[in-house]
Write a structure and sequence with these properties.
The protein is of the alpha/beta class and 666 residues long. The chain is built from 22 helices and 35 strands. A 7-stranded mixed beta sheet has the order 5-4-16-15-17-18-19. The longest helix has 17 residues.
């Protein structure tokens, strides 16, 4: 048992690491080139939010952004969410990743990869990556794919998926992806909104030692995407075959075969700052998941800034984050290569055959920067594994804990069992900005359970109920000024109404992120969970609406409600409350069928911890399920503080849930 108190200092960088950090190099550059002098992180952060245009112009110049045109405005005068960045210029995301192909020997490794389906560790060079991207991009152009066309992928975290993404974005087409473990309806809910022209897909995958043939699910998905004219199939799971599809199916190997395309013979499509790069999807708490559109400009500058200054990745960095293609973390994995480092990819169960597997992989590949959820660290700890003793962790410099709040005990365990002198940082961001909002710096001490600081260029504070900043008290996490990687728009939301309703409905003109947070007097913060109804399941956010759409298919069920809370030990509790239809009762067979349907139609993460029969589901007067009040009651708050019975259609239901919460707590 590790004894640690919240806020206790766990680590402080040596002077050598501070002076050699990417942030220190940037501070030196600012002094030489801008006449700006800063002695610490806080001085740099304050300037970055007091002079938003000056800061982002400096980022642009420091990283030598490749572009056409001249900057008219760093950011326009339009208020959020209509602010536009770097107007007058054109650039390309993929060009910024692949420019490192020419920085030195193209035979250098850029991707190391393995998976349960391909257990042998393999490596890909810069030349191989760039060559494959150019071949595929050229073939896509020859097939008539044009800038702005949507291309989607139902593929896992393997090199082919990154090649497809880079080829898509290299020609100005717009990318989106879903993990193959997603159930068909979950994928349809996403991709049908954006009408893709072409689909990249695998026929199955291997997870936890078991094979999963996805040809049936893929056929169902394709049948609901009438805009999709062609499918590029990768035979990833042997003997799984191909799906039924009325259009053309092209083998992956055919798309990347043929003569090489030389670097000098390939032109990246440079696009304006309002051109869609990729579309990520929100969790789908209410209605269909929100299709969040990011731009090339915002993602390039934000990812360079975050990778360098908040993760301290350098040109020799080896980045490894455990992620699926359905999580925004996957879209950040090119940060390492963008900074001339390497990336490690893994597709499979993170603890199969046990929780030591990923540590062995990191030891073999020399990982310097490891990103993972606190839940994974808890599993490693519970299995008695001590990575620093069992594996060679000499290369490891930074551990990023993300996806959910990290407990003081987990951070202390990392310093005890992984490496005493390691920059272990808990950070928090979101799909919406595809980056961090609350971040860290190796210039600052790392304290137990605390996120070190707001990210550079991010004017974020906690607001109380009346929209005033608070320190020391829990409030709503808000962003008061624009960030370059904020969404350009939501696909199909032409008048911005859905965008505004999602983030600007509570505090007009101010982004409300949906996290409960407490800032300290020293500038650090503690994220205490979601304030909305998003389900944070083992560090991956999923939507309650996805679960409801499956449950609505059961005639025996009248209504349902699902919430997820973070437990004090760092775990999760996700109960599904079921109100039975008149004359029906919950049976073991029905419960098993609910679990089966959620697992197959959605994903294993959508399966609740427990199914509880409730007499009635509480709703507001307008018929909305009272997810947030129920969640807050389960977190220990009193019912009269979180739910007004005057605004409740069925007050007795609130009483039942309050009693349930009290009994569970006792």
């Amino acid at each position: 048992m590790i004894n640690v108190t919240e806020g206790q200092e766990l680590w402080r960088a040596t002077e050598a690491r501070k002076s050699g950090s990417q942030t220190a190099h940037f501070i030196d550059w600012l002094a030489r080139n801008r006449g700006k002098n800063f002695s610490d992180y806080w001085g740099l952060w304050r300037w970055s939010v007091d002079d938003i245009p000056g800061f982002w112009q400096a980022i642009w110049d420091y990283f030598e952004i490749i572009h056409n045109g001249e900057i008219e405005k760093i950011l326009t005068d339009d208020p959020m969410p209509r602010t536009r960045w770097f107007t007058g210029t054109q650039l390309n995301y993929a060009e910024h990743v692949l420019r490192q192909e020419t920085n030195g020997d193209p035979s250098r490794t850029v991707i190391s990869h393995t998976s349960e389906a391909r257990p042998e560790l393999a490596h890909m060079s810069w030349g191989e990556l760039g060559g494959a991207v150019r071949k595929l991009a050229t073939r896509l152009r020859d097939m008539g794919i044009e800038p702005g066309d949507r291309i989607v992928a139902y593929m896992p975290n393997i090199p082919e998926t990154f090649i497809a993404m880079l080829a898509t974005t290299a020609i100005g087409a717009t990318w989106s992806s879903a993990a193959p473990e997603f159930g068909s309806q979950t994928v349809i809910d996403r991709f049908s909104q954006i009408e893709p022209k072409l689909v990249f897909a695998v026929n199955g995958y291997r997870y936890g030692g078991k094979d999963f043939d996805r040809t049936g699910e893929l056929a169902h998905i394709l049948g609901k995407l009438p805009s999709a004219e062609q499918v590029v199939m990768l035979d990833y799971l042997p003997d799984a075959g191909a799906p039924d599809f009325a259009g053309e199916i092209i083998p992956w190997d055919d798309m990347v075969s043929g003569p090489d395309v030389a670097r000098e013979d390939f032109d990246f499509t440079r696009v304006p700052s309002d051109h869609p790069l990729w579309i990520l999807f929100s969790s789908g708490t209410t209605g269909l998941p929100k299709p969040i559109v990011h731009g090339h400009h915002g993602i390039v500058v934000e990812h360079l800034k975050s990778g360098a200054f908040h993760l301290d990745m350098h040109e020799n960095a080896v980045q490894f984050c455990y992620s699926t293609t359905g999580w925004m973390v996957w879209n950040t994995l090119m940060q390492g290569p963008m900074l001339n480092g390497r990336v490690v990819l893994y597709d499979g169960h993170p603890t199969y055959p046990d929780a030591a597997y990923l540590w062995d992989l990191m030891s073999k590949t020399g990982v310097t920067t490891f990103g993972v959820s606190p839940t994974f660290m808890g599993l490693v700890r519970s299995q008695g594994i001590r990575p620093g003793e069992d594996f060679d962790m000499s290369a490891l410099e930074t551990i990023l804990l993300t996806g959910s709040p990290s407990t003081p005990e987990i951070l202390a365990w990392i310093h005890d069992a992984v490496k005493a002198d390691i920059y272990a940082t808990s950070q928090s961001g979101g799909t919406e900005v595809c980056s961090g909002i609350l971040a860290g710096s190796c210039l600052l001490p790392a304290n137990a359970g605390e996120i070190q600081a707001p990210a550079l260029g991010t004017d974020t504070v906690a607001f109380n109920e009346v929209g005033k900043p608070v320190v020391g008290d829990v409030g709503e996490l808000v962003i008061r000024q624009p960030m370059p990687s904020m969404p350009l728009f939501f696909w199909g939301d032409d008048d911005f109404s859905r965008y505004i309703d999602s983030y600007f409905d509570t505090f007009p003109g101010i982004w409300r992120h949906g996290d409960r947070v407490r800032f300290t007097e020293t500038g650090g913060s503690y994220v205490l969970g979601r304030s909305d109804a998003t389900l944070n399941r083992f560090g991956v956010r999923i939507g309650s609406a996805e679960i409801y759409r499956t449950i609505e298919g059961f005639a025996e069920v009248a209504d349902s409600l699902i919430v997820c809370i973070e437990e004090p030990d760092g775990g999760y509790y996700m109960p599904l409350f079921i109100q039975m239809a008149k004359g029906q009762r919950m049976t073991d067979d029905l419960e098993k069928e609910i679990v089966r349907r959620l697992r197959t139609e959605r994903s294993p993460r959508h399966v609740p911890d427990v199914i509880v029969e409730a007499p009635e589901i509480p709703t507001t007067l307008t018929g909305k399920k009272m997810e947030v009040p129920v969640r807050r009651m389960l977190l220990g708050e009193e019912a009269d503080k979180v739910a007004s019975k005057d605004a409740t259609k069925n007050p007795a239901a609130v009483d039942w849930f309050a009693d349930f919460a009290r009994k569970r707590k006792s």
